[in-house]
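Researcher: Next sequence.
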Amino acid sequence: MILSFWISVPLLCALNSVFAENELVKQMCPCSKVEPEINAAFEARGRKRRKRDTNSTIGDEVDYRIVGGYDVSKNKPWIAKLWLIRFEMLCGSTIINKRYLLTAAHCTCNVLQCIKGVPQYNPKVEFKAYLGINGNVVQIDSSDLRGNPRYEYGVLEIKSHPEYALMTFDIALVKLDRDIQFIPGVLESICLPLADDRSDIVEGEENLEVYIAGWGRMSSDCTTNEYGPVRNLKCMFPFNYRGYENFGCSNSRSPSSQLQLCNDFRQAMAAEYPESLGSSIVILEGTRKTRCFSFSIGDSGWCQGIATDDQFDDNWGWCQHSCSLHKDSTMRLPKILQETRLQILPMGVCKDLITRGNYKFVGMNEMCAGKKKTFPPVKVWEKIGTSFTFRGTERNFFGLNDDGKYPYSYYISGSDSCNGDSGGPVYRWINGVPILVAVVSRGFGSGNMDGCAELNFPGVYTRVAKFLDWIQAAAADGYC
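Model: Next structure:
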């Protein structure tokens, strides 16, 4: 009876004319018309769900990436899983026509050898693809779908970009072993850009939102949350505090409780002292500036930030809930497709933030994106003698502007693609039509290590528009 739900390509063309006739022929196949999520509520719901889930006792599994996202409520019929069998590795991919998926070259040519994009291995043995599942609750390794011809596809051929090297030109095509039978709203290709028209380039303060979806990690290494002096950066373990080596998050009162100036203010101005994790004050005493935070241990304790000194005044932050999870816990992995909404950053910002961390960025072929946030205000008090006087508010730059030279009105953190999302789609809606603008390539983080959703560490994505000629030529035998 399943066959009654399948639909012919000609009929799909009639149902799915999302472009004018002269533009439709430029697409490889008729493409999806799914509307975007109304996702503000879903983002909040996702945060609450993950907070509850940290109490779960589900066992461990292999290591896999969307951080700070939400469960999808509407199908994303163009997204597919790509499973590397021998190494039990997950990548994302995107349906672009009836026979091809688009993914990242590092998914096909890193642990498996390629020479100028040509695999030196048998793709039929190494890969499986799973399509039409993004509305399902599934196992991360797709073990519940194996052998089911409705969802599982073999891989006939891999075509990685011939110039792929050291993460640049990070794009590849996956040819399936049979044609995809499209189902409107369930299994469809996504639209490609019609030209390299620089519509994926951002200038100045312009906001250009994109969406990313995948089944990768929902949390990375143990990092701080959004509320301390050190925000969304890795914890340093072991760290030394009050003579003890801490190998996990500390459950003692926050280091602010050990600062005399913070204690003096709390005793004198109890009603003004910050008690919630998200608030702080600044106290001036002569030329010295001290930031005071809640004395609370938070829900999961606190830790010292990586690559910081041992003064324990502004070098710490409250731990994320996921710090209590084993690094390979299945609670870091979703069973429902995750999506997040990010903003593309100007090329100059990408280059500044990425190369500052000694990472390579090639703006001609790549873009970067993150969750843009504005700096919160903080109250400033001055201590004169034994009394405190309110002096107004200042923007809290989280230490980024200590030299007065921080150039941006925003920071990025809190949501990102992560391990296992590689190769997946980055898309936006233009005139109501979802358009594939990039492929998930890589991320990085504090301490010169990989990371996800960390403070001012944007994700890096391969720009699809720069590779249109190569895609259309290499995947021509999959046109509808």
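Model: Helices lie at 9-15, 21-24, 40-53, 105-109, 123-126, 260-268, 347-356, 468-474. The first strand starts at residue 70 and ends at 71.
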